[in-house]
Amino acid sequence: MAAGGSRTVLGLWLLAAGLCGAVAAGRSPSCHEVRTAFQLRQIGPLKLVPDVPTAESDLQICQHRAPTCCTKKMEESYQAAVRRERTQSIQALNFELKYMIVGHITAFQEAFESLLRFAENRTSSLFETAYRPMAKEAAEPVKELFTDISLYILGAETTVESAVLRFFDSLFPLVYSRLINPGITDLSEDYTECLRLTRQDINPFGHYSKNMVTELSKSLWASRMLSQALSLGIEVINTTEHAALTKECSRALVKMQYCPHCQGLTLIRPCVGYCLNVMRGCLASVSELDAQWREFISTLEYLTNEMAASHDLEIALSGIWNSINEAILHAQLNGPQLSATVDKVCGQPKQQEGNLSSANIVPVKEVTETQTFMMAHTSLNNKRSSLPLKASKNDKSRSLKKISREFINYMKRSRTFYASIAERLCDGDLVMRDSSTCWNGEDVVESLSRLLTQTHLAGAVPAWCVLSLTSPVMLFRTDELFCAETWWFTHSHRKNPVD
To answer: What is the reported pTM?
Structure first.
C-alpha cells in the first residue's frame, strides 16, 4: 500500500477505534473530549461545541470526510485563539531578552548617574577648596552643567558643546569679579550679561574650554548612542510581539493545532517539520529582522567598547574638575589683558570701598603684568595638587566596563534570536518529539523526528507566507534598525563625533 494510503488508514483507524470504543462501552459517539479541551484552553463558549459528531458542511478550514465535532463558529473561535496564543508564545520567548536589555538600561543609567554625581562632587569640592570666594555663586552653574550632560546621555535635544560653553559663559563673570578683580561690587545684570557675551569673543579660558568639549564629546557620544540603541532594541522587540498575523497564517495555525480536535484527537501534536514550515511562514516578517538584528548586536558591542575603552567615560567625567581648574588658572594669569579688553567693551565696573582691606584688593590698573603673574602663582601650584578629590565608597557603583562586558556576552548569544524563532516556538509544548505519531495537517502519521533531522523534515516556506512580509510595522522596524546602524557607523568614524 502507498505511504499516503497508509497514513490515511492510520488516521481513520484511530478515529474509528475511538468511536468503536465508545460504542463497545455502551456509549454513543461523543464530543466530550473536544468540549473539555475547548473549555480548558478558554477558546470560547461551550455552547458552540456539539454534543456528538455531525456532518458539518460549511467548515472553511478543518474540512474532513468523517463526522466532525467542529462548527464554523468554532473555527472562528479557534482563529482568535491561535492569534492570542502566538502573541503569548512570542512574549514568553522575548521575555528573557527584553528583561536583560531593560535591566542593563537601568544598570547603565545608574552607572551614569553615579559617575555624574561623583564628578559633580569633585567639581564642587574644587570651588569650595580652591576658589572659596566664588564657591556659593558657582554652585548653580555647576549643577546646570551636569544636568545638561545627564540629559544629553539620555537622548535630549542638546549638545555637549552648548552645555560646556554655557557653563563657561556663566563662570566668567564670577572669575572676573571674584578672582581677577576682587574689589568689584555686585555686578549689575547688564554688566554681567556683557561679560557673558565678551567671553565668547576674548576667550578668557584659552584652549581649555574647547579641549573639554572635545574630550567629553568623544566619550559622551558613545554613551548617548548606546542609550538610544538600547531603547530602539526594546521597541523592535515590542513590535514583534504585536505583529498582526495574516488571515492565511491564522488558518494554517488552526489547521495545525485544532483541526485534529474536530476528529476527537485532542492529544495529538503537530509533526516537527510541519510545525516548522507553518511557523516560518507565519513569522517570515519577523525573521526578516535577522540580518539587521545581527548588525545591531555588533553595533552595541562597538558602542560599549568605545564607551569603556579608548573614550573612557569614567576618565572623561572625573577629569572635568581639572579642565575647569586649568581654565580658571589660565584666566587668572591673563588677568591684566582680560581687564583691559573688558573695560573697552563693557566699561569700568564699580569698586568696593571700605569693606575690603587694601591687602585683599587687586587694583588691576596699578599692577604690572609681572606682579600679577607672581601674585597668581603664590597659590596656583597648591590649587593643582591639594584638592580632596578621592571618591567616597558611597559614590562607587558597578564599573561600566564590568556592566558592558556582562551585557555584550549575553547579547552575543542572542545574535540568532530572530532567525531561530520558529524553531524555538516548535521546541516548546507545541510538538512532542518523543511521540510515535503526529499530525501532518491531514492525518495522523508515524513520527519521523527520531529518524531525520529538522532540516530534512522542514520543507520550503509556504507560498502564503509572502503575504506576511508586507506588514508595514515590521518593515518600518527593519528599516529603522538599518538606518540607525548606518548612522552610527558613519558618525563613529569621524574624528570628532557630531552631537
So the answer is: 0.69
